[in-house]
């Protein structure tokens, strides 16, 4: 399983990666994680991901989700943002989950369970 973490903040990306790795070890899910620290780095990547955590926030996050949905209709997208402002747009893009910051491990467990249909 390939998982992308798209987060502008390096410390936030490290924490998310750690929690996702912890979840995957706990449930014995083989996973390959890749971090992107800018929207440009993510949008220029041509690989396929099963799950994508889009933490760029705001209109940038929604734009990236829209682009990703057009490229890969089966990808499980999890939006992470500071406000609830983009929840409805995320639903319209058929995002799997929306996490309101601050992110906690229990949010990762919920979103991974949803993405894996558990």
Q: Explain this structure to me?
A:
With 118 residues, this protein is of the alpha/beta class. It has a single domain, classed as Response regulator (Rossmann fold). It contains five helices and five strands. The protein has a five-stranded parallel beta sheet, with helices on both faces. Helix 1 crosses helix 5. It is globular, with a radius of gyration of 13 Å. It starts with a strand and ends with a helix. 31% of the residues are buried.
In short:
By secondary structure, this protein is an alpha/beta fold. 45% of the residues lie in helices and 20% in strands.
Give keywords.
118 residues; 20% strand; 5 strands; Rossmann fold
Q: Any idea what the shape is? A: globular
Mean of residue pLDDT values: 95
Order of helices and strands: EHEHEHEHEH
Rg over CA atoms, rounded to whole Å, is 13 Å
Task: Give the terminus-to-terminus CA distance.
Answer: 15 Å
Quaternary status of these chains?
single chain
Number of helices: 5
Helix amount: 40-55%
CATH fold node name:
Rossmann fold
Total domain modules: 1
Q: Largest beta sheet, briefly?
A: 5 strands, parallel
CATH class categorisation: Alpha Beta
Low-pLDDT stretches are none
The CATH homologous superfamily name equals Response regulator
- Proportion in β-strands: 15-25%
Overall strand count: 5
Structural category is alpha/beta
